[in-house]
Amino acid sequence: MAEPELHRSTSTLPPPAAAVLLRPSRIPHDVVIDIFRQLPAKSLLRFRSLSKPLCDLIDSSDFIRLHLSDSLRAKSHHSLILRDWHLYTVDFDSLDAAVGLEHPLSVGGGTEALGSVNGLVALRNSERDLAIYNIATRKVRKLPVSEVEPPGGQHLRTGYVFYGFGYDSVNDDYKLVRMATFVGDENACDTYNYDYEVKVYSFRSNSWKKIMDVPFYVLHRRGYGVLVGSALHWVLPQRAMLGLKNYIVSFDFVAEKFDEVTQPEYENKDLSYQVDVGVLEGNLCVMCNYEHVCVDLWVMKEYGVKESWSRMFSVQKIRNTTTFGFLRPLIIAKDGNELLLEVNDEKLVWYDWKTGKARSVRIRDGPKSFGAVMYVESLIPVDDPDEVERQRRLREDAEREKLRSENNYG
């Protein structure tokens, strides 16, 4: 009965992958890895049940890292997550139709996607209902509750609460930072005088800890944070009274510290402008928006080096778009000739920065207004490490028991 199931599993695969599944013992191990590393995560998950060697290969940490690295480099197995009252996914290769995202926090709408890193997505319903979800594997980790606590037990109410999701590459740890502000009746209208709390959740330790050294002015932010390397970046709202205008700050997930980001020497300083941040090909970028009619995109080629800022192009006109309230780059096309832009939280366009030509992307069944997040399929596990180890030992015990039984009856 296993053979028909095997043929059904291989019917949609490229011939090399099908050959591996049908005759695994005849294919060299390194060839098997080279073939499997190119397959979608969802296909690999189906093949885990076909044999123990394939399961061990697909579950190995080395293969998981290799598969993710290949997907990021080749821009394969990518999707967009569209954020509205509901969440949607759109396949990057087709950019055709939006599909409602099923996830474990679904309560009829209102779930917030806080960010995506290496195939993991941070989700929020409330400060007490947070999760990290792998869309491809459909595995989830509910985060332990950590109350938002006013400092010193003061009678303050919670003001703004912001989150940022990122990766600590030094410690191989996914982290979620939560920044909360508090206001009292006496300063409810004073946006410059408030108390604050910052906590960081560690995926590896499955616990929260409080960050004590926090400059007060970094806690407000506009929009979502942008992850570049191991640091989250965002722009503060305009605060003329504090001399903070177009101020960019970062939070380093390794050092767990805040810092200011140096900016380029903008060319049209006679015009009023505001800036937003993005990420392009792994580099920090800044969109300098001049009076909502022209946007310059700058790229920092070497992180932290002010002199490495370079103006990539200027967007002055896109058909059916009269003003630029918001413009952000998402990803460069696989052929390297066009850039996918999110414009005004309502449309996607392919933009050729060499010719200045733009073409609209029409997505069926999607929301009218949205924020977009790039997502890549991966096999990164989200289970509690202790539970993973327990399951591994159970499998090994079961395998030993099976061999012992076969030997006894042999």
Task: Note the topology.
Layout: H1 2-10, H2 15-22, H3 29-36, H4 41-47, H5 52-59, H6 61-74, E1 78-83, E2 87-91, E3 99-100, E4 112-117, E5 120-126, E6 129-134, E7 139-142, E8 157-168, E9 173-183, E10 195-202, E11 207-211, E12 222-228, E13 231-235, E14 248-252, E15 257-260, E16 273-280, E17 283-290, E18 294-300, E19 309-315, E20 327-332, E21 339-343, E22 347-352, E23 357-361, E24 371-376, H7 385-409
Antiparallel strand pairs: 1-2, 1-24, 2-3, 4-5, 5-6, 6-7, 8-9, 9-10, 10-11, 12-13, 13-14, 14-15, 16-17, 17-18, 18-19, 20-21, 21-22, 22-23
Please provide a written account of the structure.
The chain is an alpha+beta fold and 410 residues long. Among the domains are: 2-71, no CATH class; 146-261, no CATH class. It contains 7 helices and 24 strands. The strands form 6 sheets. The protein has a 4-stranded antiparallel beta sheet. A 4-stranded antiparallel beta sheet has the order 4-5-6-7, with no helix packed on it. The longest helix is centred in the last third of the chain and has 25 residues, at 385-409. It is globular. 30% of the residues are buried. Mean pLDDT is 85; it is low at 1-13.
